[in-house]
Hints:
By secondary structure, this protein is an alpha+beta fold. A 7-stranded mixed beta sheet has the order 3-4-5-6-7-8-9, with helices on both faces. A hairpin with a 5-residue loop joins strand 1 (56-60) and strand 2. The protein is built from 7 helices and 16 strands. The structure holds 6-O-phosphono-alpha-D-fructofuranose. 6-O-phosphono-alpha-D-fructofuranose binds at residues 119-120, 122, 211, 247-249, 252, 277-278. Residues 119-120, 122, 211, 247-249, 252, 277-278 line the site of 6-O-phosphono-alpha-D-fructofuranose.
Amino acid sequence: MTAPSSPVSLTRYLLEEQRQDRISADLRLLIEVVARACKSISVAVGKGALGGVLGDAGTGNVQGEAQKKLDVLSNEILLEANAWGGHLAACASEEMDHCQPIPDAYPRGNYLLLFDPLDGSSNIDVNVSVGTIFSVLRCPDDVPQVGDEHFLQPGTAQVAAGYCIYGPSTMMVLTIGHGTHAFTLDREQGSFVLTQKHMRVPEQTKEFAINMSNQRHWEAPMQAYVTDLLAGKEGPRGKDFNMRWIASMVADVHRILTRGGIFIYPWDRKDPSKAGKLRLMYEANPMSFLIEQAGGASSNGRQRMMEIVPSQLHQRVPVFLGSKDEVETAVRYHLDHDRHA
Ligand code: P6P
């Protein structure tokens, strides 16, 4: 009887990836820094009302949204972790108007780290899963001082992306471009342990995730697509669909990575000046990298998400991601509409 193989920790996984020249030592260390920060955030989130950090911070973020105390705390934890880790990256965050360059006293890092420190934070006060989303880009060469403009790279330029979901268990889901893998936090050991290699999104699905209360504000192709979903097997899709909406992107995407589905946050007329609710750089792009590495697809409804060339650090996009065939169907409704418009 062969001895059970010892659990593979995140550190051991990253060291093996570095040994195979799939990541640099600095990128390995940067991901470890993020993981360490996520462990601290997990402790803070897990304390709930006992931690004295629930509720609003009384401040607003760059999007003009009320910040939760845990939004601010999580952002600080990630920035401090990057500092303690030697400022391996310049940072940009949903909670900061502009990027945080690397202090002059430090060598210019090779990476740019973007994150939504606590996505879904409106769910904290009702004890629903929330998460940290992060994306890593290369810092352009010979840049004396990093500015917001250096972060404006398409999703295809990402070298790593992931999220940490603070749910019944704390899990980090990560890609460095060689598949999407899940690590579960062993609280007794204090380390993330590999629990699912090469996650796969089923190409077809019978489950969609959307906030239906916005239906009257959607554009025509979106109305047509969802009407056909709701028509079920009596309608043109010929099958019944189920619906889920947690209103925490990390939790909805984790479900889709685990059992398939399509997640949609489309453009709506509530605020026509915004191209959608979700942000391209630190929500849509990292989630798209993870989903594509797991065999899924991600689009803004008309083009591949990761090919969008960003124009602003905090720009928003419509999001259609998940089971490849279903995303392609939703996109077809939009492109057919445009052709006949
Ligand atoms: P709504 C959370 O605020 C978030 O940014 C995502 O995590 C989530 O998918 C979405 O917004 C929920 O939006 O309009 O349903 O509250």
